[in-house]
Amino acid sequence: MPTLSKDMLREIFRLQKQLNRRIGVEMKGMTQAEKTKWILNYTRAMTQELAELTDSVPWKWWAKYQKFDEQNARVEVVDLFHFLISLAQVLGMDADDVYAAYAKKNKVNRQRQVSGYRSKDHNDSRHI
């Protein structure tokens, strides 16, 4: 399986933009009210997809009938990506923006682990 390249991430963003347009969601030129609406829509959808992912694993310790549905879990993860990418697009982020922010935040997170993350520094992520 190939590793995810910046080009693959750009293609995922392109496909999601195309899908959003097809269902009537145009990100360009959104007002603040429209952005607020769609941020809420996408975060609510992600909450539901997380619940569906949770239901893919046997989390009911009292129930013996449950089985891990790995295939469905994979589908739910991809559904989460659809909504997460849409959310990034509402916020004006493209694949390059997400990649750059991820790399910076990953560096912050690694540094937190190296330092023991003993206290919260609200300023360590301000540059992202």
Task: State the helical fraction.
Answer: 55-70%
| Overall CATH class | Mainly Alpha
Looking at the structure, what is the overall shape? globular
Give the terminus-to-terminus CA distance. 30 Å
The helix/strand class is: mainly alpha
Kindly identify the CATH topology. Answer: Helix Hairpins
Domains (count): 1
Query: Kindly state the mean pLDDT as a whole number?
Result: 92
Detailed description of the structure:
The structure is a single chain. The protein is mostly helical and 128 residues long. The chain has a single domain, classed as Helix Hairpins. It is built from 4 helices and no strands. The longest helix is centred in the middle third of the chain and has 23 residues, at 32-54. It is globular. The two termini are 30 Å apart.
Write the layout of secondary structure elements.
Blueprint: H1 6-22, H2 32-54, H3 70-90, H4 95-114
Helix pairs in contact: 1-3, 2-3
Structural descriptors:
mainly alpha; 4 helices; single chain; globular; 0% strand; Helix Hairpins
